[in-house]
Amino acid sequence: MVLATPSALAQTALDRADPTLIQRTLPPPAATPQEGPPSIAAPVAPASAAAPVTGIVRAITVDGQDRLPPATFADAIAPRLGIAMSQPDLAALAGAVAQIARDRGYPFATAQVPAQSMAGGILHVTLDLGRIDAVRIVGARSVAADRVLAAALVTGGPLRRADLERALLLVGDMPGLRVTGSRLVRQDGFGILLVTVEADRRSAYVQIDNRGSDEVGPVRSTLIATAREVAQSGDEVTLIASQTPLQPSEFVFVRARYAAPLDARGTIATVSGSIARSRPGGSLTPLKVEGNSADAAIGVQHPLLRTRARSLWLGGELRAIGTDQYLLGSSLRRDRLVTLSGTLTGAAMLAGGAARAELTTNVGLPVGAVTRAGSPLASRSDGDARFATLSFAADWTTSLGKPFSLVVAGAGQLASRPLLAVAEIGLGGPAFGRGYDYAERTGDQGILGAVELRADIGRLPGGVVDRTQLYGFVDGGTVGNLRGGEGGGSLMSTGMGARIGTGRFDWLVEVALPVTDARFDTGDHSPRISLRLARAF
């Protein structure tokens, strides 16, 4: 068991009252990715030969297949040589040729057998690989979605499935939009793609939980409100507000974020900022600890790869952070950082399951009045705002056969030098170490992991509960500080819980048992009982 020194215990208490660390435990804005691929309606083939084609077929030529080698259609052609073909046979031939083209990546390909004399026994089949001349959105109107679809699909050449898939998924990635289907129609020889889109211009999410600590909370409320199409098509404004409703003075946090498209290829720019204030109670009440923090950031993200099976995004962010803590009215901590980060975010089907991963490199820039090592007001005596870190987060979910599934998750960080509190990795909390409060152990470097077994049992008898998920888990990790710095340690917990949903309401009940060290709040191994009630609007 790791025994914490008195200074490490004091550091833990102050960290748990630091607004920049408290806000990490808040729920993130709900992501609304395209749920599964939108349907693509097969095109209606034109009529086959308007007049009968007579005679023995000696050879078959597919006209219009310049993007595909002639041998591609051998399986459709060979069985039909040396025979006379009826009207149904000609229709079947056209259908087989079109299907081969669709299977080769042209989803709107059609074929027909025009009326012909079949000179020399040569039968001509006309193949149209499916060119898009215009795109029309059906349902919700979105200028930004129009731009994405037109730029990607109206190219003057045959439409490839990969290009269609990417364009539809990029539209589905837009705030509040959902693509439900697409089909190609022809009018006067022009190919017009009709894309059905649904839109949600406003949404909100409210959550109440007890994941706070004795010093800040433990009951917390969080509101996430989102408005779309505010200043331009495709943009989004998100507001996150959190506080401790039973002790309103203990914690208040507000974050605003604006996102807007930069081009028709899925690139978005973001501007965000937050302010937070803490006046912790509990064991810190006599010390009159106060905390204030603020940050501002600008960022950009671009989809490098977007398919049903695999996706990859590249993002960058420039962020300025300031945090202050006061003890008995005197300044205790003062951290200032300016960071530049680059992030690769990926999602893929892997080993029979769904995997997500994020790899981030973060550099503390040596600009202005950033905090330097040795500063008497630094949150860590050896911490410095000039640093480099490499961090990752990943999870993998797979089915074990109904109703069971398995989730494996991990996170970690490497650092170039001792860090300030806001840049450290924390162990304990709702992601890793659920038997403990957030940041019961912190360090410059660390590795965290969790395994969760789930059973989705669905609707309960009586019709009140729509969805039920029971789960059990084991999680934990180890964190440490460079150059022999104080703090760090290892934690492990295990437990079980239930996630229950009724309509737009969701509940969580969880019992987590500390396995290694005692809990900071209680000083023993008593279970941590977590409750959550949430509603989406």
UniProtKB/TrEMBL annotation:
Biased composition range(s): Low complexity: 32-43
Residue ranges of the region described as Disordered: 14-43
Boundaries of every Polypeptide-transport-associated ShlB-type domain copy: 57-126
GO cellular component, one term: type V protein secretion system complex
Alphabetical keyword list: Cell outer membrane, Membrane, Transmembrane, Transmembrane beta strand
InterPro entries assigned: Hemolysn_activator_HlyB_C, Polypept-transport_assoc_ShlB, TPS_OM_transporter
Domain Haemolysin activator HlyB C-terminal: 193-499
Domain of life: Bacteria
Any one Gene Ontology BP term: protein secretion by the type V secretion system
Pfam families in UniProt: POTRA_2, ShlB
Record GO terms (molecular function): protein transmembrane transporter activity
Keyword Transmembrane: yes
The protein, known as: Hemin-binding protein
Organism field: Sphingomonas ginsenosidimutans
